[in-house]
Write a structure and sequence with these properties.
- The protein is mainly beta and 581 residues long.
- The chain contains 1 helix and 43 strands.
- The chain folds into 4 domains: 59 residues, Sandwich (Immunoglobulin-like), CATH 2.60.40.3110; 236 residues, no CATH class; 94 residues, Immunoglobulin-like, CATH 2.60.40.2610; 85 residues, Immunoglobulin-like, CATH 2.60.40.
- β2 and β3 form a beta hairpin.
- The longest helix has 5 residues.
- GO terms for molecular function: fimbrial usher porin activity.
- Pfam families: PapC_C (PF13953), Usher (PF00577).
Length: 581
């Protein structure tokens, strides 16, 4: 999700009337790529609140990619409860809904669903097609019978088409192209819960701001129900010349010429590590003037010039200087300059410092921000000011608590699909997938936003392990289904690493003999004898017994005891000569 801020701004995203995301951004173009909508239905309302309290509001249609399911697999859900709204002007009827997705042969998916309440009955049926090299598409039809606030009864249909495709040869990604057409008698479940045919969704008695200015999203009118909705999101890499993107959407209504329109186009490129971004936004909503804004942004990677990468590795700290220019259709010009970057080993502490200059008596303003992403959650804070004496502090804390069969694990905010790492003994180890993610004191961690139905490689960084911790494998592969919490389990050995020369009757024990060391519980440490009777074992206690066997007879097995001084805890590997008896 992209947009352009004219000043230090608060960006709020709502779905179905509820805030699902909020952040603060400096002037210029911004991109939100960690948004996880709470529902697969319901457009996203984006509000950009500038430092002077002016607001830009536009709606982005939300739709998942074409619906597909593996052959022979069935996915279903059923929900019952009360309809919950964020508007004082809506009722809370009892609601039941269910859906089913069935993977059929020939790369076809059949799906359907229904919704039922006192004043609403709807049923939907559709088909999804995996077209292979031509992408994926789906088509569905919804039939609804509705009773509105004035007692009038309506019935209608809504038709939806979705298409998604990536062209490998050109790199073009049609992330989503969709169109929905609804007949005049079609209404949604939400429409039937309103107490009146028109009004406001905000209760005036609850407003804290006396001078609150209503915007078009604060009103509704059921006589102007939705008609046609088009949406497209296309990106195109241009090789050494950069990349560009285009996003467009338009919503029309019955009984009025008003419509919601949004166009976003941008171009990105870099020349000798100097990054250039050009973006243009156009938005028009009923009851408001069109908002046009052009932004140009230039970034200079200071840290790359001061501390070039060594052996392909980037520096722990990064710093970028930025200059930007934006202008809207009202003649407001804003220029801004700043420095941003990241600190710490995993680049999980981000900072930005920015100073802005504007015309038309808007004066100057500045901002400082910090964002930290850690094992147990995310923390952000900021400070901004303007030449009118206004100052603003903001802060936020977000995270998640995952309950599983092995206990509780704190994590960063979750996505729809997530991965639980289980590595008892490997505590405080960096997870290579996930900024700021480490295993906790028990060896557990959660990696959010996994890719469903695809191979996800989860790696623990061996360089961040303690000297006496070793894993059988540092990388695991999992393939989660949508909405799942899957486990990636690592076997850790905690203890001394020992390299022993073992002799039996004055000769090295045979090559390939099996080695085992009993430990507490039912587990044991195992290994194989190498050349010249050498045995490497990890996770050893300071003293113990090593069992070696190279045959079935009593003369083809022996035991060697060892005892190491505590000073060996300071060594990466301990060495000893042992006699097997």
């Amino acid at each position: 999700m992209r947009g352009i801020a004219k000043s230090n701004a608060q960006v709020t995203i709502k779905q179905n009337g509820y805030v699902i995301y909020q952040t603060y951004t400096p002037p210029g173009p911004f991109e939100i790529n960690d948004l996880n909508p709470t529902s697969s239905a319901g457009d996203l309302e984006v509000t950009i609140k500038e430092s002077d309290n002016s607001e830009t509001i536009y709606t982005i249609p939300y739709a998942a990619v074409p619906i597909l399911q593996r052959e022979g697999h069935i996915k279903y859900s059923a929900t019952a409860g009360k309809y919950r709204s964020n508007s004082y002007n809506q009722n809370s009827p009892n609601v039941f809904q269910g859906d089913l997705i069935w993977g059929l042969p020939w790369d076809i998916t059949a799906y359907g669903g229904m919704q039922y309440s006192n004043n609403y009955r709807a049923i939907a049926l559709g088909l999804g097609f995996n077209l292979g090299m031509f992408g994926a598409t789906s088509f569905d039809l919804t039939q609804a019978n509705s009773t509105l606030a004035d007692g009038s009864k309506h019935q209608g249909q809504s038709y939806r088409f979705l298409y998604s495709k990536s062209l490998v040869q050109t790199g073009t990604a049609f992330q989503i192209i969709g169109y929905r057409y609804s007949t005049e008698g079609f209404y949604s479940l939400s429409d039937t819960t309103y107490k009146q045919m028109s009004g406001t969704v905000i209760d005036p008695d609850t407003l804290n701001e006396k001078d609150y200015v209503y915007n078009w999203n604060d009103f509704y009118n059921l006589r102007y129900n939705k008609r046609g909705k088009f949406q497209a999101n296309i990106s195109q890499p241009l090789g050494e010349y950069g990349s560009m993107y285009l996003a467009a959407s338009q919503q029309t209504y019955w009984n009025t010429n008003n419509k919601d329109t949004l166009y976003q186009v941008g171009y990105n490129t870099s020349v000798h590590e100097i990054y250039l971004n050009i973006a243009y936004n156009y938005s028009k909503s009923p009851g408001s003037d069109a908002d046009r804004i052009l932004s140009v942004n230039v970034s200079l990677p200071i840290s790359n010039w001061l501390s070039p990468a060594v052996d392909g590795r980037t520096a722990t700290n990064s710093m970028t200087a930025t200059y930007g220019y934006s202008q809207d259709n009202s003649g407001h010009v804003n220029q801004y300059a700043g420095v941003s970057g990241s600190l710490l080993e995993q680049h999980n502490l981000n900072y930005n410092i920015q100073q802005n200059f504007a015309n038309q008596n808007n004066g100057e303003n500045g901002a400082v921000g910090l964002n930290y992403r850690g094992t147990y959650g995310s923390l952000n804070s900021g400070y901004s000011y303007d030449n009118n004496g206004n100052q603003q502090f903001n802060y936020g804390l977000s995270g998640a608590l995952v309950v599983h069969e092995n206990g509780l694990t704190l994590s960063q905010p979750l996505g729809e699909t997530n991965i639980l790492i289980k590595a008892p003994g490997a505590n405080n180890v960096n997870v290579e997938r996930g900024t700021g993610v480490k295993t906790d004191w028990r060896g557990y961690a959660v990696v959010p936003y996994a890719t469903e139905y695809r191979r996800n490689n989860i790696s623990l960084d061996p360089m961040s392990m303690s000297m006496h911790t070793e894993l059988d494998a540092t990388t695991m592969e999992v393939i989660p289904s949508k909405g799942a919490l899957v486990r990636a389990e690592f076997n850790a050995h905690v203890g001394i690493r020992g390299l022993f020369n073992v002799h039996y009757r004055n000769k090295p024990v045979p090559f390939g003999a099996t080695v085992s060391v009993p430990t507490e519980g039912t587990t044991q440490i195992t290994g194989i004898v190498g050349d010249s009777g050498q045995v490497y074992l990890s996770g050893l206690p300071l003293q113990g017994i090593i069992n070696i066997q190279w045959g079935e007879s009593a003369y083809q097995q022996c035991r060697a005891s060892y005892q190491l001084p505590k000073s060996e805890l300071d060594n990466a590997i301990s060495y000893a000569n042992l006699e097997c008896r």
